[in-house]
Amino acid sequence: MNTTEKVIFEQFPYWEKAIGANPADSSSKLLVFVGCGTSYNLALSLAAYSNLAGRMAIAVPGAEWESRPSAFWPDWRDTHVVALSRSGETTETVAAAKASRSAGAFVTAVTVEPESSLARNCDRMISTETHSDEGIVMTVSASLMVLLGLQMIGQHVPSSVVAAARKLAGALDRVLPAMIADRTHFVFLGGGPLFGIALEGALKLMEMSQIMTQAFHPLEYRHGPISLVDEKTAVVMLYSSEQREAETKLVGELRDKGAVVIGLGGPGDVELAVDADLSLTGLVVLPALQILGERAAQARQIDTVSPRHLTKVVKL
Ligand code: F1P
């Protein structure tokens, strides 16, 4: 077992420590979730969860918010910026936090590095301990930032999510070898708060295995991208409640065209149950998506401990 795989399966005690660790935020300003790479994907999901819970929110990549915030929100100086960064050192995210603060916005940092530049340039910090062996590819810290972010927007995270996430990752891992052995085109589909999670599944698998991946809102996939589906395609469908029927129909079409479909929370070539309330699905599926990336890399004999062209922190 390599270190990446070990860390993915050892992440759950850190979840237990983070559960209940931070209170809900009560400000009424627009929440602007900001981050880069994985942290931006998480921002997208958290913003959607926040809107669903009645707290208005948007998600913006760090560099975009730093350089042209008014393209995203006209009244950008009067917002509550939530900057997500594992390292707390990513140039664009730190710059976005600094620019927001100096313009009068309130800045909360969500990070696992309480001594970082981001932590020094915020009004409030939310942090928790992460696995010390986590490498370049972000796994446990991504899950932890979603957990902290959910609690920040007032979502109760029950300890049952730990067992649900562990069970799903194990169940997916058992069926993966047969499903992905000869697949070279991976597609992740998810709607609402699961779109950011679909993007994160795609980014993880791409970083780990150097395979081109894609992520779409489920029904968007029929508008063009479906032309690429063949017997080399593997699809991960993150089922929602609102569009379950349409998503099920789409999965049937994709299977007819040769794709193998992993159904998380609904039908597919395999159907794996997600034992959690829909407001927690995004968190619960993350470890399963991480192990999928690792297994795809192993199938190609690619080392995820030193992934090509990647560094743990990106500084400009
Ligand atoms: C985010 C990030 C990662 C990416 C790479 C570089 O960093 O872009 O998503 O995989 O490792 O950093 P951070 O701001 O959360 O530390």
From TrEMBL:
High-level lineage: Bacteria, Pseudomonadati, Pseudomonadota, Alphaproteobacteria, Hyphomicrobiales
One GO BP annotation of this record: carbohydrate derivative metabolic process
Name the UniProt record assigns to this protein: SIS domain-containing protein
CDD domains given in the database record: SIS_GlmS_GlmD_1, SIS_GlmS_GlmD_2
One Gene Ontology MF term: carbohydrate derivative binding
Occurrences of domain SIS (ranges): 19-168, 176-302
Pfam families documented for this protein: SIS
Entry keyword annotation includes Repeat: yes
Keyword Protease (UniProt): no
